[in-house]
Amino acid sequence: MYLSIVLAILDIGPHIMGGERVTREEWLHIAAPLVAVIGVLMACISYGFPTEKVWSRHLVIAMFALIVVYASILGALNLIHHAIMWRAIINGTLFGGASFWYFYFKPSVAEYFRELANRDCGMN
Fold first, then answer.
1. DSSP string, 58-89
2. 80, 17 in Cβ contact below 8 A?
3. CA 8-84-28 angle, 5° bins
4. Whole-prediction pTM value?
5. Within a 13 Å sphere around the CA of 95, how many CA atoms are in the beta-carbon half?
6. What is residue 124's three-state secondary structure?
């Protein structure tokens, strides 16, 4: 995620948001802040899963929710093209919904996180 920001700063490669080419300045102004925050969330998720942290699944959902909220706000303020906004909202909703089902409703995965939560509560 951070490499994409560095590449944009150095003006290397195409700058794309929502499948559409945008200017370097537009990408840095609009996409880079979201990419930076998602990078932090991804790092936390990457730490949380192998160390069996209960909160890790919540961060996955938060990441997709952030994309939807960010795109909605920027679209409402007419700071991004509505095609980009709708693509982000649809993708965030679809992938977030699939992740929500997987982490909270798929029986084996939901049970795994319940066991982690029970184990963590037993430690206190």
1. HHHHHHHHHHHHHHHHHHHTTSS-HHHHHHHH
2. yes
3. 20
4. 0.89
5. 14
6. coil
